[in-house]
Amino acid sequence: KGVEITHRAAMNTVAEINRCYGVQATDRGLALSALDFDLSVYDLFGLLSVGAAVVLIDEDQRRDARAWLKALRQHRVTLWNSVPALLAMLLEANAQDRQPLDLRVALLSGDWIGLD
User: Fold this and answer.
1) What pTM, to 2 d.p., does this model score?
2) For the structural domain made of 7-108, what CATH number should be given?
3) Spatial separation of the C-alpha atoms in residues 69 and 60, rounded to whole Å
4) What is the pLDDT of residue 60?
5) What are the tens digits of pLDDT across the range 56-88?
6) How big is the CA angle at 87 (ends 51 and 3), to the nearest 5 degrees?
7) SS3 of 27, please?
């Protein structure tokens, strides 16, 4: 399924997210979403529009939460953008290590978000 929107509408959303959360050039985001998924719009254009860095992972790591943790730590990722299930996988993987992360913003969408 798909919805046609203008570039202006997409950029309005990107600009508002960046404004609300103070996203700036010092931030880094982990691009987990495939390019054909709508969350990838922010992963790329949201971060790059303010000069922030986009951390990429290999295709075979797309569902490997331990690889995400490694990338988060190595690149000091500050912004997370995913569906809730992927954040749950990350938190479960980090539960064993319990090492602090540099994340300061977690954006969740695309599915029901549990209160826990």
Assistant:
1) 0.90
2) 3.40.50.980
3) 15
4) 92
5) 999 999 899 999 999 999 999 999 999 999 999
6) 70
7) coil
